[in-house]
Amino acid sequence: MGPSTKHREPLEWEGNIIPFFILGLILLLLGPGLIISSIGIFIDEGAEFSLFGEYGPEDPQFVGDVIWEGTTDDAWTAKLFNDGGELRVWIEEGKSIDLSVSLYGDRSGADFYRCEAWECDYFNNANESIPGYEFIGTIEVWKNSTYTVQFTSTEENNATVMVIVTQEIFPIPGIALLGMMFVGVTVTYIIIKFAYHSTQEIREEAENNNGNRESVSKNNWIGPDGTESGPDVPEDWYLTYDGPAPIVEDIYDENYVVDRGNGTVPVDFYIKKWGVPEGFGETDHEKLWSWND
C-alpha cells in the first residue's frame, strides 16, 4: 500500500484569508501609526509639552502664525476651514474698523465676533501679543469654503488701518498623546497576538486535516476513497468507515487484509456488513460467518 494522489479540498481558513489579511493590514498600520504619530508630536512640542494642555499668553505660539497682512484698502479671499484653528484679527492700536465675511454674497458659513472687554485685555496684555497692534476679535467658520473678508476703516476720513490675521492651532494635550500611544501599543499587541494564534491554528489544521482528512501521523497517508491509511490508524478504524466495501487482498487468521485503514478488517465484521468478498469464503471461519449470515 502507498499514498494516493487526490484532489485537496480547501482548508476552512483559506476562503477567509483576504478579509483577514485586509483587516490585519489596517490594524497593523493603525497601531504603529498611532505610536509614531504621538512620538512625533511629543518631539515637535519639546519643552512646550504640557500634560493637560496648559496654554496661555506666556507661550511663544500664543498669537499664532500670521496668515494674512494688509490694510483696510484690501480684501482677503481665502479657503477657510472649521477645524483650521482659531482665526484672530489684529489692527493698529487706537484704530477701529468694521469687518464682514461673505460666502458668495451670503454670510451663513462664517462670521466675525468682536471680543469682550476682558477677552481683548487678555490678548492685548499677553507677553506674546503683537507689538503696535491690538486684538479685536475672531473669525469663526462652520462651513468649509472660500470666503472674502472685507475690512472697512471707521476712522475719520476713512483713514487706512493696518490689519493682521493670525491662525492659532491649539497644541494637543499630553494626556491625549499618552492615550494615542496606549491605543497604538494595545492595537499592535492585539494584532501580533492574533497573527500568532491564527498562524498556529492554520498550521495545526493543515497538519491534522490538510483539507481532506489527511493523517495526523507522518507515517500514515490517504488511501482509497479518502480513507486515512497506515500503521498509526486505530485498530477499530472500520467501525467509523462509511465507504464502499474495501478490496480484500488476502486473509490472515480471522482478519481480511484490505487496501485501506490499518490494512485489516475482522472477517466476521466484513461478512456481516459487505458479504463474502469475491475469491474468498473457503476457510472454516469464513464459512461460519457466511452460513450464520
Structural account:
With 293 residues, this protein is α+β, with helices and mostly antiparallel strands. The strands form four sheets. The protein has a five-stranded antiparallel beta sheet with strand order 1-8-3-6-5, covered by helices on one side. Helix 1 runs antiparallel to helix 3 and helix 4 runs parallel beside helix 5. It folds into three domains: 96 residues; 106 residues, Jelly Rolls, CATH 2.60.120; 72 residues, no CATH class. The protein contains five helices and 13 strands.
The pLDDT mean sits at 78
CATH topology of the largest domain: Jelly Rolls
Q: Number of DSSP helices?
A: 5
Give the radius of gyration: 42 Å
Number of domains: 3
Uncertain spans:
1-14, 211-215
N- to C-terminal distance? 30 Å
Beta content comes to: 15-25%
Order of helices and strands: HEEEEEHEEEHEEEEEHH
Helix coverage percent of residues? 25-40%
Spatial order of strands in the largest sheet: 1-8-3-6-5
